[in-house]
Design goal:
Length: 112
Amino acid sequence: MRSRPLQFGGQAALFWVAAGILVFNLLDAILTLTVVHAGAAAEANPLMDVSLSWGGVWFVLVKLSIVSLGVQLLWRLRRIRLAALGLVGMCVFYMGVVAYQLAAIGVSTWAA
């Protein structure tokens, strides 16, 4: 059974969603390095924890590579509804991770 293509604003919107994933992933990597080196947190993902033990540069390279490959795969399959929803889901997930990390280190966008 074939799934129907996802129609929610065209390819341009999905492109920006994919780009957002990459930006949020980079922010996640930077924030993770910041809080781990400050001793305020530990890496929860066992695979990324191993790469973190190799050093910050390797951690960022592994993290960006894995997520970029995933985004590339989903982008190539974007005409399949599940792949397009996967891109949107990844973007929402990384937005939440970055928001959580910013809140954890006390950064707030709300003026007091």
